[in-house]
Amino acid sequence: xxxxxxxxxxxxxxxxxxEESTREQLAKLMAAYETDLDDAAPEQEAAxxxxxxxxxxxxxxxxxxxxxxTESGLSIxxxxxxxxxxxxxxYRPLKGNNKVKLENAGNDPTxxxxxxxxxxxGYDQDAIGKLSAGDLRVTEALAGFFIVLA
Length: 150
Fold this sequence. Notes:
Elements: H1 4-7, H2 19-32, H3 45-60, E1 64-69, E2 73-82, E3 85-91, H4 96-102, H5 109-121, H6 125-129, H7 133-149
Helix pairs in contact: 2-3, 3-7, 4-5, 5-7
């Protein structure tokens, strides 16, 4: 038996944005970071597909949006659910010094993802750690994009 038997049990996702518009947003994000998938190692293919699939889904559901201003450049807004209502985390553009600071996080992939998102959002690790499982999955997909593809 495959995964198909369980899909009917999963909650239905409500898409707020068309797949075409979402793909345009992903293309803009990839262009901003000069993402070159031709450089990806074959063993990274599954991870890249998972990251891009999660980002595509998050953009379509309205959980992520791109925001551009002349001062900071392209930032990403993540709309999260809180018990007291909705909130937004804004991730500033990734810079070289952010990747250098990432070396402080050690070799644990999860710790590296959370540390990077802390740096880009200005939230501390406790705040990132308190995200709901669904919001954390989106945050980790963004971190994966920055670590693997940017």
